Amino acid sequence: MEREVFKGSDLVKKVDKNERYFLACERDWVYFTLIAVAGFWGAYTYLLRGNIFCNAQTGNVVLMGLALGSGKWRDGLYYLVPISAYILGAFVSEFFPNPLKRHFCVRWDTALILIEMAAVLGLGFLPETAPVQIAQVVINFIASMQYNTFRQAEGVPMATTFATNHIRQIGVGLAKEFHRRHTANKDHREKLVKHCGMLFFFAAGAVIGTVFCHFLIGKAIWITIVPLGVIFVTLLHADLTTEKDMVEKKPAGH
């Protein structure tokens, strides 16, 4: 059976009733772009802002434990700052989506990209002598919001700020490829290809970030405003036109 699908007020097309519509913020290319930006940020914070990766918190927890275990209480307690920034990012991204949709008729996903662009713009103005903790905490905060907001790429759970899970999923996918090599069941391949793509774009972002950090130093982070801007314009256009009547529809995984 077929059903009519409306976008905004216009009849767009007919699709099978079992076909799933993915919001603009769930599209694969958005996730590939976001994880490339995250790879760039990783290179930026490691090379220029304290030799640390701020896209996730495992490293900070380990460093806090090392400091506390060595009796360096002041150094150890400092790590509560970036960890708290990450917690705050998750809180904000969980708390504000509904009020935002009610008052402005745009998705939180769209607003978040604008917030990230503003944060990146501000970080580019930081002098090289500025405390590295400023950039670290800002990246902690926006990376946490992004991780909690963008959860599934066209139905496949994804992380847009770090690569560990993608590496694990590639291993899982390769195992399934081996087990199913003599069967017609190849359903795992689409997921495997997506995780390979995420890993590739994360690494590519890190490579590009390294190159630009060597040439532009702190202002290199402004480069990421370009891909973020493309995403922002796309999502905003969808919010105001093609997905205007679907503002209450939650992305998968929420």
UniProtKB/TrEMBL annotation:
Keywords: Membrane, Transmembrane, Transmembrane helix. The chain crosses the membrane at residues 29-47, 77-96, 196-217, 223-240. Pfam families: DUF1275 (PF06912). InterPro entries: DUF1275 (IPR010699). The keyword Transmembrane applies. This is DUF1275 domain-containing protein.
